[in-house]
Design a protein that fits this description.
By secondary structure, this protein is an alpha/beta fold. 33% of the residues lie in helices and 24% in strands. The protein has one domain (11-273): Rossmann fold. A five-stranded mixed barrel has the order 5-8-7-6-9, surrounded by four helices. Helix 1 (11-22) crosses helix 4 and helix 5 crosses helix 9. The longest helix has 19 residues, at 256-274. The protein binds hypoxanthine (HPA). Hypoxanthine binds next to strand 5, strand 8 and strand 9.
Length: 275
């Protein structure tokens, strides 16, 4: 398949970023997690070995959204090593898909195998309530933007093996983990009543403004992908009052401890199942 040159970062740029990272880190772990809203707490629970600022990594795009600090943390959970990416870029910030997916391409270049993508999302399915976790089984690209040509996007995006691990950890910890379809919107505005109706009719369970470019490029590069949404709110048209970013943050903050506990156990299990 012909790579898409507008999205794919030139290998010499990735090599320069890699060179910097390998000057700071001896071993690159197999598993990386992208920390969406609500997982800043998780980052603080890790044992950090080396923390790099995105701005020091050659060619790494800089985030512009408050609350999305740009760091790459090489750390461990109970002696199992992982990489945590803090501060992703979004399309609504005016970033290109090459910039948004830079870290995914860099992780793949570094030899990472498993990519856990997390995000905050609005609940579309009426059974969902704020604080719920949803394991992503498919996605809808409501933006109509082409990240990669359809023929380059693998049929199977999400790793069944990683999904099975997620379900088993949820059962062990007695955490209710639903499965659902994620709908990607451009943002930064939340959806109107009418959009919520359409998106629900399309079959989405959760809606958000991130993750899809990354999972497309990650799957294209052959990474094993796991996606988890934290439901921070009922989608804008469903709740009684207009949705604010502060509301989304408040729910993310409330749930941070059990959510981090689940993510730690999940990622630990993924790492130890590799070896
Ligand atoms: N819509 C879109 N993105 C979101 C939402 C929402 O309701 N909640 C958190 N991110």
């Amino acid at each position: 398949m012909k790579p898409n040159s507008a999205v794919i970062v030139p290998v010499d740029k990735l090599a320069q970023a890699e060179e910097y990272i390998l000057s700071k880190v001896q071993n690159v772990p197999d598993t990386a997690v992208v920390l969406g809203s609500g997982l800043g707490y998780f980052a603080n629970q890790l044992t950090p070995n080396v923390t790099l600022n995105n701005r020091d990594i050659p060619h790494f795009p800089q985030p512009t959204v408050v609350g999305h600090e740009g760091k790459v943390i090489f750390g461990s959970i109970k002696n199992a090593n992982l990489i945590a990416i803090q501060g992703r870029s979004h399309y609504y910030e005016g970033k290109t898909f090459s910039e948004i997916t830079f870290y995914v391409q860099l992780l793949s270049h570094l030899g990472v195998k498993n990519l856990v993508l997390t995000n905050a999302a609005g609940g579309m399915n009426p059974v969902l309530k704020p604080g719920d976790l949803v394991l992503l089984k498919d996605y809808i690209n409501f933006t109509q933007l082409e990240v990669l040509p359809a023929e380059q996007i693998p049929q199977q995006i999400f790793s069944e093996r990683l999904a099975t691990i997620a379900k088993s950890v949820a059962t062990e910890l007695k955490i209710n983990l639903s499965e659902g379809v994620y709908c990607w919107t451009i943002g930064p505005s939340y959806e109107t009543h009418a959009e919520v109706q359409i998106i629900r009719d399309l079959g989405a369970d959760v809606v958000g403004m991130s993750t899809v470019p990354e999972l497309i490029v990650g799957a294209y590069l052959g990474l094993n992908i796991l996606g988890i949404s934290l439901v921070t709110n009922l989608a804008a048209g469903i709740g009684a009052t207009p949705l604010t970013h502060a509301e989304v943050q408040a729910v993310a903050d409330e749930i941070k401890k059990p959510y981090s506990k689940f993510m730690s156990a999940l990622i630990h299990k993924i790492i130890i199942s590799e070896t």
